[in-house]
């Protein structure tokens, strides 16, 4: 996976070549990703779905993240990114079913990892239940949270939110649970990234 070839860009979003995934995160090149956020309306309440990253993930293990996301390879179009949804959470969605949220750029820097993404972002208004999700090894579970509570969390109006969902058991069964989590249980995207996403989703739901 670290040898995957990705298109790289300068700070003005001009393409400057191709690099491996390992080089992209070592040298901090801007690169393209595909993000898809699932929402669902139930009895008048909007929910947002999040994936729980596997404990075996090299980056951000055991943290909550975008419903489905991944890198766009050098030879892929944005439309090809829809494969990430099927690969990660096992749900067939066509590109035409997605609502575009635009390209959202953000940067996260840790000791040995620089993540500078141009994220082609989309919303999928889902009618699926938890039973419809089939997860790959890199995704440990799926949860949902009331969208308004998610908003309040990232705008500093509450310290925690209630999540409900499932985690995959060792025997491949879905173990359902409820819990309260704070910001520290989410992948540390910039707060402004979460606020931007929230604003764009609000325009669509």
Commentary on this structure:
With 205 residues, the chain is of the alpha+beta class. It has a single domain, classed as Nucleoside Triphosphate Pyrophosphohydrolase. Helices cover 17% and strands 43% of the residues. The protein is built from four helices and eleven strands; from the N terminus they run E-E-H-E-E-E-E-H-E-E-E-H-E-E-H. The chain has helices at 21-27, 83-89, 147-154, 191-202, and strands spanning 5-9, 15-20, 30-42, 45-53, 64-65, 68-71, 99-110, 113-125, 139-146, 161-168, 174-181. Strands 1, 2, 3, 4, 5, 6, 7, 8, 9, 10 and 11 form an eleven-stranded mixed sheet that branches. Strand 10 (161-168) and strand 11 form a beta hairpin. The longest helix has 12 residues, at 191-202. The radius of gyration is 17 Å and the shape is globular. The mean pLDDT is 95.
- Name the average pLDDT: 95
The amount of helix comes to 10-25%
> What does the largest sheet look like?
11 strands, mixed
In total, the number of domains comes to 1
CATH class: Alpha Beta
Query: Per CATH, which architecture?
Result: Alpha-Beta Complex
Class from secondary-structure proportions: alpha+beta
The end-to-end distance, rounded to whole angstroms, is 35 Å
Radius of gyration of CA atoms, rounded to a whole number: 17 Å
Give unreliable regions as ranges.
none
CATH evolutionary superfamily: Nucleoside Triphosphate Pyrophosphohydrolase
Counting H and I runs of at least 4 residues, what is the number of helices?
4
Q: H/E order of the elements?
A: EEHEEEEHEEEHEEH
How many E strands?
11
Bin the strand percentage: 35-45%
- Coarse morphology: globular
Could you say what the CATH topology is called? Nucleoside Triphosphate Pyrophosphohydrolase
């Amino acid at each position: 996976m670290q040898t995957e070839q990705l298109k790289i860009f300068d700070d003005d979003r001009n393409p400057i070549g191709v690099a491996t995934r390992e080089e992209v995160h070592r040298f901090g090149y801007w690169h393209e990703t595909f993000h898809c956020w699932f929402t669902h309306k139930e009895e008048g309440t909007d929910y947002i779905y999040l994936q729980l990253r596997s404990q075996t993930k090299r980056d951000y293990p055991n943290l909550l993240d975008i419903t489905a996301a991944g890198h766009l390879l050098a030879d892929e179009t944005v439309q090809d990114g829809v494969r990430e949804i099927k690969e990660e959470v096992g749900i067939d969605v066509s590109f035409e079913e997605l609502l575009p949220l635009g390209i959202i750029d953000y940067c996260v820097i840790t000791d040995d990892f620089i993540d500078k993404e141009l994220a082609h972002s989309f919303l999928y208004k889902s009618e699926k239940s938890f039973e419809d999700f089939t997860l790959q090894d890199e995704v440990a579970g799926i949860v949902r949270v009331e969208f308004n509570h998610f908003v309040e969390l990232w705008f500093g109006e509450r310290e925690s939110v209630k999540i409900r969902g499932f985690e995959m058991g060792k025997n491949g069964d879905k173990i359902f649970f409820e819990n309260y989590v704070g910001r520290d249980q989410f992948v540390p995207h910039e707060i402004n990234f979460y606020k931007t996403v929230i604003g764009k989703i609000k325009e669509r739901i």
